[in-house]
Amino acid sequence: MGAVGRFFQTMNPDISAIIDFSGGYYSNENVPKSGDDPGKTGFNVQELEVALQSIVDPYFRADVFLTIPNLSGLEVEEAFLTTTGLPANLQIRAGIFRADIGRNNTQHLHMQYFTRRPGTNTAFLGIDGLRSPGMEINWLVPRIPFYLLLSFSAFSVGAADPNVQLQSFGGGAAYDFTYLATARTFFDLSESTSLYLGLHYVHGKTSQHTTSNVALPSAQVTTSNPAPTVYDNLNDNLYVADLYLKWKPANEVHTYSSLMWTTEYYLRQIPNFMLLGVARPQLEGGIYSDLVWQTARRWYLGVRGQILGIPSGDNVQREYGAAASVTWALSEFSRVRVYGEVNFPEAPKQPVNGAAFVQLEAAIGAHGAHPF
Q: Does 339 fall in a domain?
């Protein structure tokens, strides 16, 4: 009877659920937010994630992640198949998934050490990051003395929601795919220190719509019929570099100490933008850097700085930001976090924006490991 039970158990996927609850405030409710940031001042069910993961057969693995961010409705955050036995160090992934661009874009909310994502995500990748239906091919380069993974992927990115920041991708026709090429490498610098580096290039078409007729006075604009702005449907290029350095002594039980440093830089180029017949190419960038220090067995301190608008353009203005978090991991399945941030726009007469939240997180069930 026990053998029969074990047989049926192997036919079931690993199932888990993770809930994030937060309470706090925004000094300015109009501050740009990622889709899984706290939705508003007050109490928020920031996200509920349900995961189903399993080996399908000798050829495929399946991963499905369903989320309800801020009680706004059920979303398929990721649902993809990954090959497990291709020759020549090749691997294919297909479905809807977070693109391997930078580190933050690939991470689910429960992998974060901060309650809100950095501003570079919304400024250059959109509210939900670069997360769309697509296909990716990976090649682990053989016979070299270090780890090097080369990837190429194509996505069908949806158009941006009306009245949000310029979205780097999602414009054009259905056949105007967004293309991503990536090179990632990893080094063991010592027994306790490792270094990860990534370089990424993305090409696609911009997307931006508005329900206001200010941009195009002659257009019949309504809530159900938003009009494109002058920045919509333009060829653009996004260049991204990211670094992740981790120090963790081998004798973990004795020290319970580690240090993690992450930095990402984004540079967006819109070379063919014209305004009133005059060429006005756009080059806009932003950077963030965060440091997370594990001070004791269950305590983590995080600090993050960011600068948007280096260089600045029409859609990304200069702004300086700082954030800090204190995380108490009660166990491997629950944690409490206190988070605060402040942002200083450089433009005159723009208000300083701040936010402060307490976040609770708990996980149940068997949740598979995420990539390093």
A: yes
